[in-house]
Amino acid sequence: MPQISRYSDERVEELLSELASVLEKHQTPTDLSLMVLGNMVTNLINTSVASAQRRSLARSFAEALQASVSEDKAH
């Protein structure tokens, strides 16, 4: 069942586009991009979420990430 976001698609797409532009500007390879984004997620969780909720949020985030990854043979 799809989740309803409190943020507009336009807002999400705008931020995604800006983040992608920064990575492209620096010609960042995929592995480094994933490292940087992973560190950013970790930092956000550690600095913006109550310690009692961090593991649960990280688990939910990881599950959502796994669910969103396509298994097609594009690469």
TrEMBL record:
Pfam family, one: DUF1414
Gene3D superfamilies xrefs: YejL-like
Protein origin, superkingdom: Bacteria
Family: Belongs to the UPF0352 family.
The protein's name: UPF0352 protein GBAG_2804
